[in-house]
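Appendix B. Raw example, untouched.
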Amino acid sequence: MTTTRDLTEAQHAVLREHATERPFTSPLNDEKRAGDFRCAGCGALLYVSDTKYESGSGWPSFYDAVPDAVATTTDTSHGMTRTEVHCATCEGHLGHVFPDGPRPTGLRHCINGLALEFEPKD
């Protein structure tokens, strides 16, 4: 069963208050090992390393999520319309999805590293 976890102040700001970490600050941006990316808020499996790619954006980027792991809403903050991505389990803010990613989906899930925990494969 997935439960809510204790968060650092920075994780709380991102996951619960919809903040954005500064680009190129997350060590997960450069993570290249095989493994799973889980929600830092509840532990739900969100992304797998096979879908991670280097977008040059400064945030960990994925072209697809685990089926039914994330949900989206329309975000009209900051004078623009974007698609927000959040954890389908705990509703924690993860980042945004854009239609400029690679095949096969053409999507770029631009995700705050603070919202994720990486679990390497053995």
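End of appendix B.
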